[in-house]
Specification:
mainly alpha; rod-shaped
Length: 397
């Protein structure tokens, strides 16, 4: 699994409301550098285990890689592009569900939750209790016991200070986890709205019949031009005219069926993304609301609560069912070769309309992001490495 998408600079702008744009409000001291996060995801969850932290992200990573590879082939003008892939990856790209920023957010969430769970409140708490019990057995009037009591008190105060630092660290990590969850939730809501708008556009195109009429008109004009050229070279028989009319009528029916079937297939994929994004947003929102209402939680309660959030995020990037069933091209005429060109023209028109909607949404926002089809990876940032960031008690305090 590649983790090259886990690099992003969150500090270059103050406003970005594009779908899965820059994430603001996070604590820059917490977020790991790209290499640090990659190493964490490659590491196993427990000693002796073969299950890496990043195992849950493999399927989504493959989807990102597939979109990036398809974008490269599209940009290179490859002739072997599969129509089904054009439709599938075109919808995924336009919907913005497949995003390196989402991958990054989920990876960071796993990283911060791991650090939250690793906070050790038990050792200092157990030491304090033991020291207090031992102190009760000592007589402060005796010189040796008084010296021991003084040492105990010093060590107890030190452990109490450590607990204060751990509690502060717990709050900071909890705030960061809530911030990531809210970021994902808000962007999923935007994806659902974009998918809904795209579905409306596709339905309007089909109901209006404009795309169908345009394709049929172009095909008819091509045949007319061929007949005109044939007349100039010696005339056209009535039999030939009747055959052409019959073929044009058959091709018109096939183009109408093609438009209907492809609109249905693409719409169904948008519906699947819409439903998946909406359901995940609702689940995450309920958990965020629960976390905000819970007030002052223990460390164990925090780990349990944010583990629920993690499961919702992992379900988002691993438990999706996106399928696209495209219709095979067949013609009862001898002109089956015409249909692929008409389908290509139709798909280009569809995605042009849909991307206009996306651009319009970006233009209505400040800092809107103009993302081309094949932008599947985010450029690595110059964030400090783990060694350069503060460590030890000064960072935890």
């Amino acid at each position: 699994m590649k983790y090259s998408t886990f690099t992003k600079d969150d500090n270059t702008m103050t406003t970005d409301r594009s779908i899965f744009g820059l994430r603001f409000g996070s604590n820059p001291e917490l977020n790991p550098a790209g290499e640090e996060l990659q190493a964490f995801l490659r590491n196993t969850k427990k000693p002796g285990s073969r299950e890496a932290h990043g195992k849950d992200l493999v399927r989504y990573s493959e989807l990102l890689d597939g979109l990036a590879a398809f974008g490269d082939r599209l940009r290179s003008g490859a002739d072997s592009l599969d129509t089904r892939q054009k439709m599938f990856y075109g919808v995924l790209d336009q919907s913005r569900f497949v995003s390196p920023a989402l991958m990054l957010a989920v990876g960071q969430y796993k990283y911060h939750l791991h650090n939250l769970a690793a906070l050790d409140f038990k050792k200092p708490d157990a030491f304090i209790k033991t020291a207090e019990e031992e102190g009760k057995k000592l007589n402060p009037k005796k010189k040796d016991d008084a010296a021991k009591l003084a040492r105990f008190q010093g060590m107890v105060e030190e452990r109490k200070g450590a607990l204060v630092g751990l509690k502060k660290r717990q709050r900071i990590l909890a705030d960061e986890l809530l911030q990531i969850a809210g970021y994902v939730r808000d962007n999923l809501a935007q994806i659902a709205k974009l998918c809904k708008a795209s579905i409306v556009i596709l339905v309007e195109v089909q109901v209006s019949g404009t795309m169908e009429a345009r394709l049929i008109k172009g095909m008819t004009e091509d045949f007319k031009a061929q007949l005109k050229a044939a007349r100039a070279n010696g005339g056209v028989t009535q039999e030939r005219l009747d055959a052409v009319r019959k073929d044009v009528a058959a091709l018109s029916r096939e183009i109408s069926s093609l438009v209907r079937d492809d609109v249905y297939s693409i719409t169904r994929l948008y519906e699947a993304i819409h439903d998946h994004a909406s359901e995940a947003a609702n689940r995450i929102d309920a958990l965020v609301t629960e976390a905000k209402k819970a007030g002052n939680r223990s460390h164990e309660d925090d780990v349990a609560l944010f583990s629920k959030h993690e499961q919702a995020l992992l379900g988002l990037v691993s438990d999706y069912h996106f399928e696209l069933h495209s219709t095979a091209l067949r013609s009862e005429t001898a002109y089956e070769h015409i249909l692929p060109g008409k389908r290509k023209e139709m798909l280009e028109h569809f995605f042009d309309l849909l991307n206009r909607e996306r651009r319009a949404r970006s233009d209505r926002r400040t800092g809107g992001e103009r993302r081309k089809f094949n932008e599947a990876h985010i450029i690595a940032s110059n964030r400090r490495t783990g060694k350069e960031r503060r460590s030890g008690r000064s960072r935890r305090g």
